[in-house]
Amino acid sequence: WPVLLSVICSPPQNYPLYIRSIPTENELKFHYTVHTSLDVVDEKISAMGKALVDQRELYLGLLYPTEDYKVYGYVTNSKVKFVMVVDSSNTALRDNEIRSMFRKLHNSYTDIMCNPFYNPGDRIHSRAFDNMVNSMMMQVC
Amino acid sequence: LLPLSESEQQRYSELFSRCCPPPEAAAGGSSVGELFRASQLPPDTLHQITEVCGAKRVGYFGPAQFYIALKLIAAAQSGFPVRIESIKNEMPLPRFMALKNDSEVRYGTPAELHGVKFQVPHATLEKNSYKRTDEGDKQEPKSPPLSPICSPPASPSTYQRIPLSYGYGKSRSGLEQQHAAPYEVRHPTHQQDRPSSGNYGAKPALASSTLNRSLSAEREQLESSTHYSDDPWRITEEQRDYYINQFRSLQPELNSFISGSVAKNFFTKSKLPIPELSHIWELSDVDCDGALTLPEFCAAFHLVVARKNGYQLPETLPETLQPEYLQAASLKPMRDCALFDSYSELLPGSQQARDFSRTEKASAEEVPDNSALLQDAKKEDKQALKVSTPLKTIPKEFQHLTVKTAAQESNVLRARPRSRSYSSTSIEDAMKKGEEPPTPPPRPQKSHSRASSLDLNKIFQQNTQAVRSGWLPPPPPALPPRPSVSQTEQVSEVELHPQMNRPPSQAEENSSAKKEVVLTQPPSKPTRRKLRTEAQGLETPELSPTINVTSSLPAVKPHLPVQKQSSKQKRAIQTAIRKNKEANAVLARLNSELQQQLKEVHKERIALETQLEQLRPVTVL
Short name of one Pfam family for this protein (chain A) (predicted)? Predict the structure, then answer.
């Protein structure tokens, strides 16, 4: 059930632009998870080489014996990373759904970019983005 | 100790007398508290103000304390910190919302007030407006501050009904507020008031005459609060004109749009905090392309104004601020006429110059960027005319390609499927409307740009299916574009084959590619319909031969089955030939312009691709 979503900006800083999780307790644990998953993401990026694959998945590399959750990653053309952590018990979530969620995220992110008042690298406060993320997470839970 | 301008003196004394019934020397705490709350500042600010003004120290609100407090309130409302130094600044009068007052005061005073005040504010307004023109600031239009909390008063809307007087009566309960409103207008902190000064100037005569009417109407309206008067999100005519003027100052081309950076600079001048501006942008840039078309701009401006007046920003864009709504409402009077005038001007058929100007416009509106058109297409717009405005956005979008590529692509992908049928129906609607109205200032580009980009879209996307279906109602698709007049309109289109517009020379037309016939169907249809009303005779005889010809093979040229039409045919053919030549020249020029644009697009694309390559990670060997 727990789901965490975060948008992390491009290197070199890799700091999060947006983090949202449901439920909101244990957030720190999720933050930590996201942080560690970034390494895996970077590794995959460099491994990919020329082929710029948009959607990749992180599986099991972050599965701890005590906790079971899956971490999914997605990278945009501008090296912005989306990381999603979902509970493994949520087996209903299929790959396609994850991909579509990332696609929606990417679209919303693009819309935010179009806002001239948004400076890339700022935290994301867009209400439209929030609404979209909320609705998405509601769907999952 | 405290420099007060005349207006401030007046206002403050009124407020003071309200709060503290004479002969007492100090203002009653409760009424002061009420007044302060009505200023809508946060409570801690109010506490701070109370402290700074010295009332806490002396224990009561004497005149000095009260005046200082009022000035501090004004400062706080303008965004200055609550300090003693702030009161030295010149600032607008403090605004108090939702002050309850006697209705007599409310209704009684407007009469005198406006009679007295209009001359004064008018003069000063003009002065101020010219002073601040160069700043090009964001404007606070004439609408007096609206009370966000209390329900009915919505001066912009009431503005529509009864100019100024009602608005004042409604939104400002009490003398001081009515005073304040023109004064506020006079001393806008960050705002300009050029158009509103114009409004005021125009209105005084009206106001006095309408006052009596308005006063009674006010009462009625107070009771029956229609959605109209309740809606602070409804843009009044004056406001719209004002916004349009502002738009013009940023972007002379009304059909084009303002880029994100330009809009950002402009709205930043309003001194709203960036997150709020960001939210306003989010609300108003409906198609998320990083640019504001005219209706989007009006919506954004209106939101800024509302926010400055204390309204909370809505979570979603109110219906009255939606671009379709705005365009339908606002553009109808302007564009309608222009559009129809251009169509009616087609009839004389002698406007070479106009043709060329139109084609220039058309060529300027390249297809590669459909987002403007598609933006409109995306919206469920029943009004046809809306299409015309976004078409003009195409050249601008073109220039901002680098900024909005991603958005464009997503927009294009999203909206493209819907644009076809939508735009075709819109032309039909436009033409239907074209039958009636008077002939206003000519804006030929509108129709033609739309039509031309329409056709261009079709050509590039080969979406003739939608077109065909959209156009089925009138003549069958096989009919070539008909009357000679239609060609002048066709000329502006970005048709790559000149002949297609030529009318009764069906032979020639039929010899050209069939698809062009279909493609020109839409533009020709409106003119055809219009012509029908004007020149029935011309149409009908040509109709039959056309039908006959097209029923047979298109390639069959001179063998017209109907012999008695042949002489007419000949004449028509000759006319057609002449016009074909003209069209050829125009189209050749159009072609060259388009080639030029294509080159530019290629250049930009190459630039983008190199950028992309640079951004890609270095490949690990």
Answer: Sedlin_N
